[in-house]
From TrEMBL:
<comment type="function">
    <text>Part of the ABC transporter complex LolCDE involved in the translocation of mature outer membrane-directed lipoproteins, from the inner membrane to the periplasmic chaperone, LolA. Responsible for the formation of the LolA-lipoprotein complex in an ATP-dependent manner.</text>
</comment>
<dbReference type="GO" id="GO:0005886">
    <property type="term" value="C:plasma membrane"/>
</dbReference>
<keyword id="KW-0472">Membrane</keyword>
<keyword id="KW-0997">Cell inner membrane</keyword>
<dbReference type="InterPro" id="IPR017911">
    <property type="entry name" value="MacB-like_ATP-bd"/>
</dbReference>
<dbReference type="GO" id="GO:0016887">
    <property type="term" value="F:ATP hydrolysis activity"/>
</dbReference>
<dbReference type="Pfam" id="PF00005">
    <property type="entry name" value="ABC_tran"/>
</dbReference>
<keyword id="KW-0449">Lipoprotein</keyword>
<dbReference type="GO" id="GO:0044874">
    <property type="term" value="P:lipoprotein localization to outer membrane"/>
</dbReference>
<protein>
    <recommendedName>
        <fullName>Lipoprotein-releasing system ATP-binding protein LolD</fullName>
        <ecNumber>7.6.2.-</ecNumber>
    </recommendedName>
</protein>
<dbReference type="InterPro" id="IPR011924">
    <property type="entry name" value="LolD_lipo_ATP-bd"/>
</dbReference>
<keyword id="KW-1003">Cell membrane</keyword>
<dbReference type="GO" id="GO:0089705">
    <property type="term" value="P:protein localization to outer membrane"/>
</dbReference>
<keyword id="KW-0813">Transport</keyword>
<dbReference type="InterPro" id="IPR015854">
    <property type="entry name" value="ABC_transpr_LolD-like"/>
</dbReference>
<dbReference type="GO" id="GO:0005524">
    <property type="term" value="F:ATP binding"/>
</dbReference>
<keyword id="KW-0067">ATP-binding</keyword>
Length: 237
């Protein structure tokens, strides 16, 4: 991460409540967070503390009850649905615990899909997808469909897919929650190396404190707000 820190994503006083009949569940209570360009940030916290909810709000997959989220100064919840979808496809990458690959498409097609959606030249998109699959060690599995890949291989395809459009920010929710310890280490190392090379910021929600400790910064979700755990880079929240 560079010494000069430029804000990329700004979460300003975000709250989230769910209403179900008479019952109101307060999940987030005024979360403030700045993600800097190129930084690698982990969010930890107990089950049900609101980590995934926050990640979804950061990625326009769920809306806040109040507060704002700005990506490069653009207020994400003031955008039209069409512009939000464009931001999701071009500027954000997502990696989930379960790969969410399209089952009927091959590895290379899955990786190229966000580039096709972006309208990039099809041949070039496939070349880029092949290069990325080479980078994650799957150059020999281009034509396999997800059912023909192992769990770790599927996650590596998902990483390549998340990066194909060179997003500003990759959001990952327990990306290795489904893998054994050595595959998890491997997948994390790969995400971190590629994110660094692409100058992509990376925010991961995880229960794995050992992996979280390897990131530039680590925050804990507690009582609906984020608390600082480790402050490697010296920035104030
Ligand atoms: N649609 C919903 N309606 C009501 N409550 C919800 C809804 N979605 C989530 N919640 C509640 O919000 C809280 C936070 O959920 P969230 O998935 O963000 O937690 P988390 O920290 O990611 O948990 P975990 O580590 O177990 O994945 C939970 O208590 C959950 O029950």
């Amino acid at each position: 991460m560079s010494q000069i820190q430029t804000a990329l994503l700004q979460v300003n006083h975000v709250s989230k409540q769910y209403h179900d009949g008479e019952v109101t569940t307060h999940v987030l209570s005024g979360v403030d967070l700045t993600v800097y360009k190129g930084e690698q940030l982990a969010i930890v916290g107990s089950s049900g503390s609101g980590k995934s909810t926050l990640l979804h709000i950061m990625g326009t997959l769920d809306s806040p009850t109040s507060g704002t989220v700005l990506l490069d100064g653009e207020d994400l919840y003031k955008l039209s649905a069409a512009r939000q979808a464009q931001v999701r496809n071009n500027d954000l990458g997502f990696i989930y615990q379960f790969h969410h690959l399209l089952p009927e498409f091959t590895a290379i097609e899955n990786v190229a899909m966000p580039a096709f959606i972006q309208g990039r030249d099809k041949k070039q998109a496939l070349v880029d997808a092949k290069n990325l699959l080479d980078r994650v060690g799957l150059g020999h599995r281009l034509q396999h469909i997800p059912a023909q890949l192992s769990g770790g291989e599927r996650q590596r395809v998902a990483i390549a897919r998340a990066l194909i459009n060179k997003p500003k920010l990759v959001l990952a929710d327990e990306p290795t929650g489904n893998l054994d310890a050595s595959s998890a280490d491997n997948v994390y190392a790969m995400i971190r190396e590629l994110a660094q090379q692409f100058d992509t910021a990376f925010v991961v929600v995880t229960h794995d404190h050992k992996l979280a400790a390897k990131m530039d910064r680590q925050l804990t979700m507690k009582d609906g707000v984020l608390q600082v755990v480790v402050h490697h880079a010296g920035q104030a929240e």
